Amino acid sequence: MHLLKIVTHPLSRGEGYASKLLSGAESVLDSSGKIFLEVATNNKAALNLYEALGYTTLRKVKRFDSDGSDALEMMKQIE
């Protein structure tokens, strides 16, 4: 599975909604599934969340976003 976007309203950030969305996505995969996503290197809140949930960095993607910023490709193996 490749997640394209996880978006929460700015006033609702930090309330656990992104974690619940990720948990829902993970629940539809069987034990051999993997989830991939990209996150901007300057999005520290998202990076912290993904790392806390067990996502690991696979590689850095140069100039990933339209503004030229870099991103990290991340993955989680569902067990």
Short description:
It is built from two helices and three strands; from the N terminus they run αβαββ. It has helices spanning 17-27, 44-52; strands at 34-40, 56-61, 71-77.
Using brief descriptors, characterize the structure shown.
79 residues; alpha+beta; globular
Q: SSE string, helix = H, strand = E?
A: HEHEE
Arithmetic mean pLDDT = 91
Number of strands: 3
Uncertain spans = none
| Largest sheet, strands/sense/barrel | 3 strands, antiparallel
Helix fraction by DSSP (H/I, runs of at least 4): 25-40%
What is the topology, as strand order, of the major beta sheet? 1-3-2
Structural class: alpha+beta
The fraction of residues in strands falls at 25-35%
Please give the alpha-carbon distance between the first and last residues: 14 Å
How many helices? The count is 2
